[in-house]
Amino acid sequence: MSNVNSGDAFTHMSNLHLGSSTGGGGLKVGLVTIAAATTAYKVLSKNSGKLHAFPDLTGDCTITLPTVEYGLTYTFMYTGAAADAQDWIIKTSAITELFAGGVVFHDEDIGGAGIEVLAVYADFSNDDTFTVLTPQVGTTVTLTSDGVSWLVNGMVISNTVPTFA
Known about the structure:
By secondary structure, this protein is mainly beta.
């Protein structure tokens, strides 16, 4: 890891808004709102640290992450009013960049076998695609790069278990 105070290590600081000497302290993080008709979304490095809000989509959305770079962080949040009938297919930019970690899955299929909560993990062998099927309100996934892979954490609320492949 390089010295964090050198070179362009802080190229993403434009996402932060700090208070001035006269007040207004606190930290605000930017927001990226995804259009409902988006079926392919390329995540930009410059949007690291911003919340990416996904509404009810009109079709499945393939989300392509940028090349791994230490410290890049993205949070995807479902902001629709009801269960979305569409999926998020989150892909790394190369098959050698894998997902590690996992999410808590909350199965809210109350008409079926009942509510379940379980952990869903990447096995870190060939996991370059993470699919969130029909997200519902409360679904939030954070991806952080350690410079080699994408670390996954979050909660998926759906009737269908998310998958790593």
